[in-house]
């Protein structure tokens, strides 16, 4: 029978419809959906560095580079001298398109995604993510820095070469703000981190847990919106992704690689997104002495991984509900059974 479910960290309702459930092999295999540019024409491949804007960071290799970061050629936000806040026609708000938009080119290899890379290369990618977030947070106009990866056309990617993106915004996005407020209210009532409590409950149940290792735990959320949606949490309470020490970075590289490998081995080359949910820029705000000052106690960074196996249509847009035909308990069971390959 269908169920309406709501999880505590988002306040969002979803419909889990088991009668629509499919086996993993029954989902439409759409692949990346991108035209495969040959390495000779790809702007992200080694040897084609002149085809991108000048890089802002490079992880050197003996004969080239391991990871490059460049400004997005078609940036969503750009540099301004001021925010330029103003009212329009009395009650609309407008400001300059302040921000930054960067592309992390994860490897010079045109054909190897994170699940295919050796652990040390994935660790370099994690190190680069942290370095760029730290650098962007030095700008006081940037209130939030979002790291995300779009893999496949259905997930929003426009190039096949493995890459992820970072966008800094001059406001805290509403979805992030809602999550922060829920977490703060929970801590005020119970003096415990909501996310730690949810994680502990999932570990004790084990029903939706896919893997627990290297200081992290991966599970299919109770209120998963999409088939095989996953979340990845550090087991030690931490609000700030950029605070990871070297051992924690290695652990994240290993479990992120294994998690994406599980999805690929089970479902094939499917489109997916992953999104880092971390703290807003902690730099104090003039005139706002209480600006998110409780974050070290009530917030918990995590990564959400969302395969794009179903389509968002009129019902979802009209109601804000999602219909998930794959119960997360069943999805976790399938993923636990995947036999991983060696690096």
Your description of this structure?
The structure is a single chain. The protein is of the alpha+beta class and 343 residues long. It has a single domain, classed as HIT family, subunit A, CATH 3.30.428. The chain is 26% helix and 22% strand. The protein is built from seven helices and 15 strands. The chain has helices spanning 119-136, 174-190, 194-205, 246-267, 295-298, 314-319, 328-336, and strands spanning 3-6, 13-16, 57-61, 64-71, 86-88, 92-94, 100-105, 144-151, 163-169, 209-213, 216-219, 230-234, 272-277, 302-307, 322-324. The strands form three sheets. The chain has a ten-stranded antiparallel β-sheet, with helices on both faces. A hairpin with a 3-residue loop joins strand 5 (86-88) and strand 6. Helix 1 (119-136) packs across helix 4. The chain is globular, with a radius of gyration of 20 Å. The chain starts with a strand and ends in a 7-residue tail after the last helix.
């Amino acid at each position: 029978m269908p169920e309406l479910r709501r999880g505590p960290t988002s306040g969002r309702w979803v419909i889990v419809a088991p009668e629509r459930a499919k086996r993993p092999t029954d989902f439409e295999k759409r692949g990346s959906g991108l035209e495969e540019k040959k390495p000779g024409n790809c702007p992200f491949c080694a040897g084609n560095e002149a085809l991108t804007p000048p890089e802002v960071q490079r992880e050197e290799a003996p004969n080239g580079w391991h990871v490059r970061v460049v400004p997005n050629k078609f940036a969503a936000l750009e540099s301004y001298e001021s925010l330029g806040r103003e009212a329009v026609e009395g009650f609309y708000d407008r400001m300059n398109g302040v921000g930054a938009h960067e592309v992390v080119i994860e490897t010079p290899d045109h054909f190897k995604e994170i699940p295919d890379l050796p652990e040390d290369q994935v660790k370099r990618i994690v190190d680069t993510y942290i370095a760029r977030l730290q650098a962007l947070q030095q700008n006081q106009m940037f209130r939030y820095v979002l790291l995300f990866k779009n893999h496949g056309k259905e997930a929003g990617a426009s190039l096949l070469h493995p890459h992820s993106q970072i966008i800094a915004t001059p406001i805290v996005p509403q979805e992030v703000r809602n999550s922060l407020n829920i977490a703060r209210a929970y801590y005020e009532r119970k003096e415990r981190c909501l996310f730690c409590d949810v994680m502990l409950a999932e570990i004790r149940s084990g029903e939706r847990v896919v893997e627990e290792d290297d200081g992290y735990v991966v599970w299919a959320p109770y209120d998963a919106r999409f088939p095989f949606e996953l979340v990845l949490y550090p087991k030690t309470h931490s609000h700030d992704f950029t605070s990871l020490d070297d051992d924690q970075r290695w652990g994240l590289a290993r479990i992120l690689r294994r998690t994406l490998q599980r999805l690929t081995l089970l479902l094939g080359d499917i489109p997916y997104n992953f999104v880092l949910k971390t703290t807003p820029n902690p730099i104090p705000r003039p005139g706002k002495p209480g600006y998110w000052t409780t974050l070290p106690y009530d917030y918990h960074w995590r990564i959400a991984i969302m395969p794009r196996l179903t389509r968002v249509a009129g019902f979802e847009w009209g109601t804000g509900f999602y219909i998930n035909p794959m119960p997360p308990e069943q999805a976790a069971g399938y993923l636990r059974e995947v036999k991983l390959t060696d690096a």
